Amino acid sequence: MNSVSIKSLYLPGDNHRLHLCQLSGPESNGQAVLMIHGSMENGRIFYNHKGKGFGSFLARQGFDVYVLDLRGRGLSEPVIGKGHKHGQHESICEDIPRAMAWVKSRTEKPFHCVAHSWGGVMLMACLIRQPHWIEQIGRQLLIGSKRTIRIHNPERWLKIDLFWYRLAPLIARLKGYLPVKALGIGADNETRSNLSDISHWVRCDQWKDRYDEFDYHQAAQSLTLPPTWFITGKNDQALGHYQDMCDFVRELDMQEQPCGLIGRKTRYRHDYGHIDILTHEDGPQDHFPVLSRWLHSGALPEVQR
Description:
Blueprint: E1 5-12, E2 17-24, E3 32-36, H1 54-60, E4 64-69, H2 88-105, E5 111-116, H3 118-129, E6 137-143, H4 154-175, H5 180-183, H6 192-203, H7 216-220, E7 228-233, H8 242-251, E8 259-262, H9 276-279, H10 288-297
């Protein structure tokens, strides 16, 4: 399984460096993929050094895979700590475009994008705000991505209403940042700004930038965004629920794009959740090949939902 080479690349910025992990398999099919993680995560959601994860799987299928650690996360420098003020505005306007530019410089073809959870929201916001990138992208795969959370159930009340809206801001105010790793609730820390930015968008009906009032929803109506397959796990009850994902699709005016539910009713082995849709040991024998075929050729399974 561990036939994937891992190389760390660093993209310089203003007083920071972004880490971009390059995953390469034995042979290349000439297609590149940029992978973007979500909140309280880093790029390791897609790979590890034992060759596991969806990013590693794609590399073994011949894709040239580049996994971004957003500012302060993973191996990007410096790591998030007290006093760091960057938020999702910097991710959308600076960091994701910088990674796109680097990947584009390494390939003559349009590259593909894979994003998980909130990474999908930031990716789409980047394309809407800087539409010259749209023609550079072949296909996209958004996994468990939603912009608002309107579903109500016990998991939402615990993870969103209690922790994200109430406890997290209090902890972040005391510490100067949200110490996700120390709390054991995720893979990477969050700045107070990012926590506030995400909470604002999740709660608001209008999709506007807090800093300059750019209207993403309105701007999206005049664009033809890249072919995108939106998927989520059947057991994703709060952080990427199917209904909330479909709300995001409608907000993007992309109702003609496919939406898939990964679970037993759609002929997969498990009802996957928000994280194990990317990390489950059965992924390479179950849904990973289906997702890979979409990126490679645009092929979709017969059963979506």
